[in-house]
Amino acid sequence: MEPSLAKRYSNLRFFPHGPRNCYTLRSLVMGNKYLVRASFYYGNYDGLGKPPVFDLYLGTNYWHEVNYSDAGAFNWMDIILVVPTDYLQVCLVNKGMGNPFISGLDLRPLNTTLYPEVNASQSLVLVNSNRFHMGPTDNSIIRYPSDPLDRIWTTYNAIPNCTKISATSPMHNNLRDVYDVPPSVMQNAATVNSSRIDFSWNPSDPSANINSKYFFIFYFAELQHVPSKAVRQFDIIVNNKTWNSRPYTPTFLFANYFSGVVQGMENYSVSLVATKNATLPPILNAMEMYLVKPITAVATDPEDG
């Protein structure tokens, strides 16, 4: 197990009684933005060999179903939201498919300028750990202190025939970076020995349907000194739609991003395609995929927990 996560998953709390059990997170700042993370490791603690299926709520607002079929898997689920009160309830709701349980619960304050897509009526839910860096192929995890916001970044190894490149100089963030991607995430990138990077992404989410909206962020930075006559230039294409208005060239050692909302597909295709003027292949440093979740109500009576 990754050392940074091992302690968190060594214990759990389960709830055999009552249809709804809640944790109340207090002393929050009303109207501020937070990342909330619930962590789960079943590990066959009850000897049944069947992970339970239950629901997570934020107060009265549905967060997501917890449904992990692998009894030995380590899982977590993030939500980024604006809190409407000075407290927040995280509730585990029994739906008759086993006792709800939880291994860890984290709360991280975020600057209000980060993730501008999140507001009083809309949150972003990270399902199935879909926050990726392109680092070494050893399934390493990047989190705090490498990421001051304590986001968890896992290694993405699903780009066919890719090679990894790394920066030898310090990375820098663009001052307009509203996602504050950490330099440790951006210092590696995936590339190929051809004119395009192609891969697909499946939500792998039992609750997904044709109306589900997902928010994608792709991060780029040039990590190599490009010779004067060489050109790295490409288009970012998601489900046959080009996201960049002009051919894109990553900036040397400075993070940049493209983001957008997709909807209505069971599988999403991503292509980074070199332009006709390019002499170097495309690169990709990191990416995040969130489920867009409307927020209609969050708080409940704090005495209910």
How many domain regions? 2
Average pLDDT level: 91
- Oligomeric description of these chains: single chain
Largest sheet: 11 strands, mixed
Q: Helical amount among residues, as a percent range?
A: under 10%
Low-pLDDT segments: none
Kindly report how far apart the N and C termini lie: 32 Å
The DSSP helix count reads 2
Task: Please give the CATH class of the largest domain.
Answer: Mainly Beta
CATH topology of the largest domain: Jelly Rolls
Gross geometry: globular
Number of strands: 24
Question: How are the SSEs placed, and which strands pair?
Answer:
Layout (H helix, E strand, L loop, with lengths): L2 H4 L6 E2 L5 E6 L7 E8 L13 E5 L2 E6 L8 E8 L5 E7 L6 E2 L1 E7 L11 E5 L4 E3 L7 E2 L10 E3 L6 E5 L5 E2 L9 H4 L1 E5 L3 E6 L11 E8 L13 E5 L2 E2 L11 E10 L4 E7 L8 E2 L1 E9 L11
Parallel strand pairs: 11-13, 15-21
Antiparallel strand pairs: 1-8, 2-7, 3-6, 3-9, 4-5, 4-7, 6-10, 10-24, 11-24, 12-13, 14-16, 16-23, 17-22, 18-21, 18-24, 19-20, 19-22
